Amino acid sequence: MGVLVLDIITTAAILFTVATGLMIVLGVMKLINFAHGAFLTLGGYSAYVMTVVGWSPWMAIPFAATVGLFFGLLIEYFIVRPLYSRPLDAILATWGLGIIIGQLITIGFGREVQFVEPPVSGAIEFLDQSYSIYRLIFVGVAAAIGAGLTVLLYFTRFGLNARAVIMNENLARGLGIDSTRVRLATFGLGAALASMAGALITPLISVDPNLGLPWLVNSFMLVLASGVSIPGLAIVSVLLGGAQVLVSTYISPIIGGLTIVVLAAVILRIRPQGIGR
User: Fold this and answer.
1) What per-residue confidence (pLDDT) applies to 125?
2) Which residues are CB-contacts of 59 (< 8 A; sequence separation ≥ 6)?
3) 142 pLDDT exceeds 80?
4) In angstroms, rounded to a whole number, what is the distance separating the alpha carbons of residues 216 and 214?
């Protein structure tokens, strides 16, 4: 039972970490970034590159975040920005970008499954059973990301400007807020968070060109069910992630893989605005 509780906690932390990049882009820009999965994959291959060149696995985290930030800023400036007045086209553009990035990764690295060296290996003893230290690290990572985003959005000038853009972009512009710069910074931050998450989850699984696709679907449903809020995302990560662990453990891993999507759809049917609002 103790290990099951740890599985629920760490799974929730992993889901929260993976979904935050998508949440901040949707929350500020009102844009569903379907390239989120591709940025996760990009982060996974960034970690793989660190393994290949023999650098410390810890370097994979800042390296992946930097790669995601760089490409996120480029994509926002050259591709997404001209489409803000055409929201549907912007969404389709991010979907197409995800496909293109996936194909470029396939060309560069092949379709083979690759493995990444974890920054921390080993296990700790908990109730006479062993548990992965690396999975436990995700609890601290999720808490740090949640706290960092809360401080950024509620205690900095950027956060004040971002919240003004969320509430009324035209009024924010009238007050002298550069909404274009806010959008650029937001998309870059979302891409950096996604790539960093990709590097973090890679040691738990493996790397392949389709790494980000299943995480994209779950992240999308979690963000919608959360009401696009940090506390809401934490709550649904625990509830839906816990349900996934329980179903996978006691019923079937295959059915468990569908749990988040099904329960998120139920939540949205009952409470369309999400549980965080």
Assistant:
1) 78
2) 50
3) yes
4) 5
pLDDT tens-digit series, residues 219-271: 999 999 999 899 999 999 999 999 999 999 999 988 888 999 999 999 999 99
The pTM assigned to this predicted structure is 0.94
Q: From CA 70, how far away is CA 68, in angstroms rounded? A: 5
How many angstroms separate the CA atoms of 190 and 72, rounded? 8
- Quick check: 224 and 19 in contact, CB under 8 A? no
Supply 104's token pair.
């470029």
For residue 277, is pLDDT > 80? no
Average pLDDT on 187-203 reads: 96
Count of residues making up the chain: 277
CA atoms within 13 A on the CB side of 205: 20
**Residue scoring higher pLDDT (195 or 131):** 195
Predicted pLDDT of residue 123:
85
Question: What sign has the CA pseudo-torsion 253, 208, 102, 120?
Answer: positive
Distance of CA 175 to the CA centre of its chain: 32
Amino acid in position 172: A
Burial class for 144, CB neighbours closer than 10 Å (0-12, 13-18, 19+)? exposed
Classify residue 238 as exposed, middle or buried by CB count within 10 Å of its CB (0-12, 13-18, 19+). middle
